[in-house]
Structures are given as C-alpha cells and as structure tokens.
Specification:
5 helices; mainly alpha; flat; about 140 residues; about 70% helix
Length: about 140
C-alpha cells in the first residue's frame, strides 16, 4: 500500500506542476509541448502503476484481463518518458530546428522493441506474468 501512496503523492505533485506550467509557461515556445507531454505521460504511467498495484490481489480474480492490459500498457509506454525527455532537451537546445529523420528513426527503435516484448509478454511471459491467482510476478 505504501507504493500506491507514493505513486499517488507523485501524481498529485506532477498535477500541480503541470497546472502551474499550463498557466505560467509560454505556450508558443517550441520546448513547451515536449515538456507538457513529458509531464502528461509520466502522470499516465503513474496512474497505470497505481491501478496495477491495486489490482495485484486475489480479490480481483474477475479483473485479471484488465490487470494484464494495464501492465502491458504500462510496459508499452515506459520508453516514451525518456524519449520525450530527450526531445525536450533537444527543443531547448535547438529551439527552431526540426528533428532530423535519422534521429527520429533512432528514437523509435526502443518503441518497436518494447512493443514486441510487452505485447508478447501476455502470452510468452517475457517481461511480466500474471498468474491464475491474479498476482503479478
């Protein structure tokens, strides 16, 4: 339960930061969008983690499919946060330059590999497994 409380606290903290950023940052700045996407994606992953921790119990055997989907989505979105952080730093340094196609392709490789492993884990248990008792391992 402590993990849920910590994730909930971080979600509240990031919500406050994003509300403050929404009103105080210049929305026309090219670096603003990657920053706000980074905050939003981090909050989404924290929310998925909270739901995963709450569903990780024998009490919710009837929700085992939902638990698997939440875990798969969490693992699927995990590389988005570091990539968005790289894009944010790039936009802060090279404010008005477009991202070259080679860099975009390089940044998409973790998504492809992680998508294969995350979706495959539902059937082949590569990254995670949820047993018949609805316990995450």
């Amino acid at each position: 339960m402590l993990i849920v409380q910590l994730n909930f606290f971080m979600l509240l903290l990031l919500s406050g930061i994003s509300v403050h950023a929404w009103y105080k940052l210049d929305r026309k700045d090219p670096a603003y969008q990657p920053f706000f996407r980074l905050l939003s994606m981090t909050m989404l992953i924290l929310l998925l983690e909270i739901f995963s921790d709450l569903l990780n119990s024998e009490l919710y055997l009837h929700l085992i499919a939902l638990h698997k989907m939440i875990d798969m989505l969490g693992f699927l979105l995990a590389p988005v946060v570091p990539v968005l952080a790289v894009l944010y730093v790039y936009k802060r340094i090279c404010r008005y330059k477009k991202i070259p196609a080679g860099i975009a392709l390089l940044l998409s490789l973790p998504f492809v590999a992680n998508a294969i492993f995350s979706v495959g884990s539902i059937w082949f248990h590569w990254i995670f497994t949820i047993d018949a008792d609805n316990l995450y391992q």
